[in-house]
From TrEMBL, chains A, B:
Name recorded for this polypeptide: Protein phosphatase 1M
GO MF annotations, alphabetized: [pyruvate dehydrogenase (acetyl-transferring)]-phosphatase activity
Lineage: Eukaryota, Metazoa, Chordata, Craniata, Vertebrata
GO cellular component, one term: mitochondrion
Gene: PPM1M
Residue stretches making up the PPM-type phosphatase domain: 100-451
SMART domains: PP2Cc (SM00332)
Family matches, as Pfam families: PP2C
Span list, region Disordered: 1-63
InterPro entries noted in UniProt: PP2C, PPM-type-like_dom_sf, PPM-type_phosphatase-like_dom
CDD domains, sorted: PP2Cc
Composition skew (Pro residues), residue ranges: 14-27
Length: 461, 461
């Protein structure tokens, strides 16, 4: 993506063109649940009349179908918020082939061996909005994008430190020293590959949805194990935490209009035409009204962490670029997340104002060094969509995890049972630690990934 | 500053105008050392022939002149790097007057009492570059800007929580609830005032330097005590740390082309014309050369935390927007810091490419709650320009502080002596913990601010 492209795409000169009518050329993305749920029950995961909170089924893989690292998974559909479960999940083995540098003069890359060179594992959650299509496409696609991006740099991951040139041939004798001084490590290539894969997947989703005349977007939370490290990449408001006997460590942070206020306000400052005169980029404690005119009220602009007062002018009465607090915060009155995949066609209702320029598809990546961690018997990573975290805190989840695992040491299916129990805890059952009235009516999906005896050492061959 | 202003200022259409020749209208800013150093020695702080590292005098206030909170201060001029000591310092009492809301219909603000309403204290270090003028102007001006900004919001600082309206009159009965939900605290008004004061001071410096035909810029590190809290605001590569018996806590982080790479690269992505075709915004481990053409080399763009490989094109051979590592890293080959005051006229040598659009004057502010901290006898804040931190780590400084204070419990001038000792430690004297060859040849300035029995409770009246 270039700056020129950004301007052409989002800053048309002259009057804005009307949104293109959907032109179905390919068949719509069919609705489905994750493949690993096959055979796990009769429910198709679509709406039915009996969806009282306590009546919605909690689904998890059938006994005997094991997920990577014996991870547990469970999900529940929302309480009639939408026809479909807009969460999606994927997991599997990640097989990276090695591409070796050809000897031809044209210095093209060749796949000399099609066998796996590196293997890893992959778990992903996608929380869709505006329809299930984007999340389904992400679940079908992102792992392939990641595999491709990793294969493009895998040659650089062989050494302890990536070489300056992918060919390994130094142009300048001090190349290794420059790489060393910049502190570039193998894990930076995986982080870069994750960043590129999210962007590639976003482009694929944009093309596919346009071709099928569908709309929608999704968040993406991905965990990848590779060469003794666990990478957690997040774009959106899902969350992953590490739970150990005496530690609860967040492995991701949420990207919402509130947490990314300064970035979003700054873009509106640079390109005010993105707001089409309909919104104010300034933040106020509440939406202003006529009575506030001429008064000095609290406000924040893009460069401010603190607050100040400004004299209210007429333009301050416009609808705020970011409005509402906490779970109610919305970008352009429309979207609750500020990073994710898709949403290429999303516009503010009854306007031509686009959401996409304010959204990032690039994830934030954290790295867990499994060798240093020395995981113990009950150490797990819990990944879940926002439906879980809306009603349970990290500490409450950690408490549930620890007490469940301690009481179920012998059960080979305990991580799957734990995932189901976590889901049930969001539904206001008797043993749930959540406060009354804090039941989750959202789609909820959970992976529980046990770390003991996993991922240490390298699996390259 | 508006987006339009930014475009007019930095993105002229058509050929770039030649830089305006300096038109001295006012007399140049006279060189001086901080006022509180008067009478502290014969040295004027300018270059003289005897400036071997061990011969340069360490200056500190004369005995009997006490600084706020009995803080210690010391400085040393650089080893002939420049004619003048480009560091500057300021400290003093901060007297905030209360402005009360008038009863007139036009709702203008009136100063009803000119007496102090709130008092605080202020310590500031400015590290100049390109001449001493900007740092001197900042030392003369920033505290006045801050006082003015605080007085503009002081009425909002009276209550435990700032009111939605500065008048205190709610337009909407639930105003306090909105402020509460946004989590807006009194300290956010001080943070906002510091952010605005830095920007106001930057504008003053721009005007004054233009009027006097001078150039230059400076970093700014400020500590302010107010209502039981210590605020540390930083724009540049100076540093403040808290040293306690069993804790070393950074109170600031440095803003350099390296630490702000993504912000700087993103601006160049949005406005490629700022680079005038002379620089590449991409980061490589080293500057590329002709031999790299067509090869796949490590690189990073604005959206990447990780690294990837790209095929080198001709445009990648241009000089990098950010080049070099660590202390050698430079923005546009010119500047070692990415935040600060001044530099309005700074251009890349022999070009019209401006540095200013890439620089921020807004500081990052951290808050130390003195009541919660319960400072002990030897707890201090050490503020110093980069000359100190280039050769001493936080831990080394903490070790020097603790051992000095333990051994000098009875000396009423011990904080001043400690500041001098820290400066001497950068000069490679016998008792210095620095490694051989790591002597500082830079200007170095240090404040040591004791926290015991200070700043707790409020001094408003």
């Amino acid at each position: 993506m270039s700056a020129d492209w950004f301007r052409r795409r989002f800053l048309p000169r002259g009057p804005l063109p009307a949104p293109r009518p959907p032109r179905p050329r390919t068949s719509p993305v069919p609705y489905r649940r994750p493949r690993f749920l096959r055979g796990s029950g009769s429910s198709s995961g679509t709406a039915d009349a009996s969806r009282r909170p306590d009546a919605r089924p909690v689904r998890s893989p059938v006994r005997g179908r094991s997920l990577p690292w014996n991870a547990g998974y469970a999900e529940i559909i929302n309480a009639e918020k939408s026809e479909f479960n807009e969460d999606q999940a994927a997991c599997g083995k990640l097989c990276i082939r090695r591409c070796e540098f050809g000897v031809e003069e044209d210095q093209e890359w060749q796949t000399l061996c099609s066998e796996e060179f590196l293997t890893g594992h992959y778990w992903a959650l996608f929380d869709g909005h505006g329809g299930p299509a984007a999340a389904i496409l992400a679940a079908n696609t992102l792992h392939s994008c990641l595999r491709r991006q990793l294969e493009a740099v895998v040659e650089g991951m062989v050494a302890t430190q990536p070489p300056m040139h992918l060919s390994g041939c130094c142009v300048c004798p001090s190349d290794p020293q420059f790489v060393e001084e910049k502190g570039i490590r193998t894990e930076d290539l995986v982080i870069g590959a994750l960043e590129s894969a999210f962007q590639e997947c976003d482009e694929v989703i944009g093309r596919e949805l346009e071709a099928s005349g569908q709309v929608g977007g999704c968040t993406a939370l991905v965990a990848v194990s590779l060469k003794g490290k666990l990478y957690v990449a997040n774009a959106g408001d899902s969350r992953a935490i590490l739970v150990r006997r005496d530690e609860v460590r967040p492995l991701s942070s949420e990207f919402t209009p509130e947490t990314e206020r300064q970035r979003i306000q700054q873009l509106a400052f640079i390109y005010p035409e993105l707001l089409a005169g309909e919104f104010t980029r300034l933040e106020f404690p509440r939406r202003l009204k006529g009575d506030d005119l001429g008064q000095k009220v609290l406000f924040r602009d893009h460069h401010m962490s603190g607050w100040s007062y400004k004299c209210v002018e007429k333009s301050d009465l416009k609808y705020p670029l970011i409005h509402g607090q906490g779970r109610q915060a919305r970008l352009l009155g429309t979207l609750a997340v500020s990073r994710g995949l898709g949403d290429h066609q999303l516009r503010v209702l009854d306007t031509n104002i686009q959401l996409k320029p304010f959204l990032l598809s690039v994830p934030q990546v954290t790295v867990l060094n499994m060798d240093q961690l020395e995981p113990q018997e009950e150490d797990v990573v819990v990944m879940a969509t926002d439906g879980l975290w809306d009603v349970l805190s990290n500490e409450q989840v950690a408490w549930l995890v620890r007490s469940f695992l301690l009481g179920n040491r012998e059960d080979p299916h305990r991580f799957s049972e734990l995932a189901k129990m976590l889901i049930r805890s969001t539904q206001g059952t008797d043993d749930s630690p959540i406060q009354e009235g804090q039941v989750s009516y959202d789609d909820v999906s959970v992976f529980v990934i046990p770390l003991h005896h996993q991922g240490q050492g390298h699996s390259s061959r």
